[in-house]
Write a structure and sequence with these properties.
94 residues; mainly alpha; 69% helix
């Protein structure tokens, strides 16, 4: 029975475009919130001004940043594990 390889197609340009769009939406939401706060005089519009402000830690942009860091760590781990197993296999047989 022949082995079939499982491949995942990853398109870096699509990933970069998606992350750029998300970051742009978060920046625009923060700017709009600050405009509501300082120009419109609304301190809190359904708590959305605080939730999308880029300068706080408990906000949607901060969670997005944490998600990116966690994804980078997961990808690094997925890359390192097979190499470690391959390296251990070479050491065991040599």
């Amino acid at each position: 029975m022949p082995e079939t390889a499982n491949f995942i197609s990853i398109y870096p340009s699509r990933i970069v475009l998606g992350l750029t769009l998300i970051a742009t939406v978060l920046i625009v939401a923060s700017v709009i919130g600050q405009l509501f706060k300082y120009v419109g005089g609304h301190q809190n519009v359904y708590n959305l001004v605080a939730q999308f402000y880029l300068g706080t830690e408990d906000s949607v942009p901060a969670y997005f940043s944490s998600l990116l860091l966690g994804s980078a760590a997961l990808l690094a781990w997925l890359i390192a594990v097979p190499k470690k197993k391959h390296h251990e296999h070479i050491l065991d047989t040599g």
